[in-house]
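ok posting inputs for the adenosine-5'-triphosphate job
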Amino acid sequence: MLKLDNIVAGYGRTRILHGVTLDVPKGGLVALLGGNGTGKSTVLKTIVGLVKAQEGQVTLAGQIINDVPTEDRAALGLSLVPQGKEVFGGMSVEENLLMGAFHRRRHRTEIAGDLEGVYQRFKRLRERRNVAAGMLSGGERQMLSIGRSLMARPTMLLLDEPSAALAPRVVEEIADAILALRDLGLTLLLVEQNVGMALDIADYIYVIRGGRIAFEREVGDGVAMDELQEFYLGGKEHA
Ligand SMILES: Nc1ncnc2c1ncn2[C@@H]1O[C@H](COP(=O)(O)OP(=O)(O)OP(=O)(O)O)[C@@H](O)[C@H]1O
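and the output
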């Protein structure tokens, strides 16, 4: 579904990604793990087109999209789920959700149907539909961020550290929500620092360090936590 082939990218003259290759199969749930400043967000920005690949190819559903503008990548089914802290705090929950449908010209009844779908998935958002997003808990904000992306009817979601700054019980709730999206048939790339969560839900794991993929492995009996930690931050526990 999504392939990065030897991506070199950065900011101005500074190179951050030094040849990143990764593959997210259709319907798969792939995690990209790494510590602070290792290039995870730059990978996501390159996929959505906010950072231009200086070398290499970004392929979505068989189409090379290096030259496709960011707004048109959304129309190809790609949606970035920012961290929950990036919701519009002064707007209500419902207004935030409707923003997700904004770029698509769609009939009002269709949008109402999508909104109902998000409320069924995240019951707490329905209860709090008229509350300012800034008043929500961290977990509710993360649900809102995912819900807003779903309003654009994506086929592939890129999740930027959905577990960041959340209590373990809430992380479990978000993990369940992500698994439910996979069961729905969505393709998911999850960027995380939370190794435990990623191992619980992902089918395949990449670890990025210093702008390079340092480790990759199918999740199953083969991936041991300590082996991952070694590649993750030189053996240091981080998340
Ligand atoms: N807009 C920018 N201009 C210049 N350098 C940047 C910019 N954004 C990020 N960087 C640098 O690129 C490197 C990688 O940053 P990136 O945000 O991709 O890391 P990350 O793995 O997502 O880290 P974090 O988990 O802290 O968000 C860092 O050294 C950072 O300082």
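notes: Residues 11, 14, 16, 34, 36-42 surround adenosine-5'-triphosphate (CB under 6 Å). Strands lie at 2-11, 14-24, 29-33, 55-60, 63-64, 78-81, 156-160, 187-192, 204-209, 212-218.
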